[in-house]
Amino acid sequence: MSPSGPTSLASLDGAITPAAEASIPATDAGLLRGDGVFEVIRVYDGQPFALESHLRRLRTSAENLRLALDLEAVRAEIFRLLAQAGPGSDHEMVRVVVTRGGRRLLLTEALPEAPERVRLASITYSPTRILDGIKSLSYAANMLASRIARERGYDEAILVTPHGRVLEAPTSSVFWVQDGKPFTPPLQDHILASITRALVIDVSDVRERPCTLEDLAGADEAFLASTTREVHPVAAVDDSEFNGIGPVTARTAAAVADRIRSELGGG
Length: 267
Ligand SMILES: Cc1ncc(COP(=O)(O)O)c(C=O)c1O
Hints:
Blueprint: E1 9-12, E2 15-18, H1 29-33, E3 36-44, E4 47-48, H2 51-64, H3 71-85, E5 93-99, E6 104-109, E7 118-124, H4 140-151, E8 156-160, E9 165-166, E10 173-178, E11 181-184, H5 195-203, E12 207-208, E13 211-212, H6 213-217, E14 221-226, E15 230-237, E16 240-241, H7 247-263
Parallel strand pairs: 7-8, 7-15, 11-12
Antiparallel strand pairs: 1-2, 1-6, 3-4, 3-5, 5-6, 9-13, 10-11, 10-14, 14-15, 15-16
The protein binds pyridoxal-5'-phosphate (PLP).
The site of pyridoxal-5'-phosphate has 12 residues, from helix 5.
């Protein structure tokens, strides 16, 4: 199932078409080998949020992957695409993909549907060290982890190393709350430098600390954070259930929403 709605638009090397009509050659190594980089940027009423942070991370990803990137072309194409798309539920995010074949593909997409609180299944996962600092197109392992979690009746995976370190979810960062204090695993655990994670740390008093499954499952509260989820309360980790939405989660969600509103000029 594609997250793109019927009016989602694409910009391929600057040419704008309906997303369903955009195509890249089958020989592009972005497709054949997942050799490329990407970003997902949230769009609120036609305005991209944290655009410069996403462009900076895209540049870092491309440099680390030794991939040619025309960052100014990407920036200009994002604004052209959003101007053409206008507001609307099919255009609440922009996905930017840069391939080894040298293509810049931008897509507007609808937000994925999500329950109010998310149930997590722990899935064993080892980060690919060589891809640290690269938001690469090689995401099959992350997608598989989510699929296995759903097969088990959960909404999403929580990735745990074979040595028992809780890392992150396949497309979001994780936080847990103990005695009223929020914690999150450190970037040194080979997790993505999530832009929303940085935002949460900025608006609340978060400490970085390695996390075990026992820490997470035994916490008072837990939540995920990402560009598309913002702050998303956790309802369960495996068979440990959390009671409703905790006060630290609610406060953090409100602080993140306020920051987003104020950065977009809404007060
Ligand atoms: C592995 C992983 N962790 C965390 C995140 C959240 O990052 P951000 O807040 O920049 O969306 C993502 C986003 O796709 C991700 O893929």
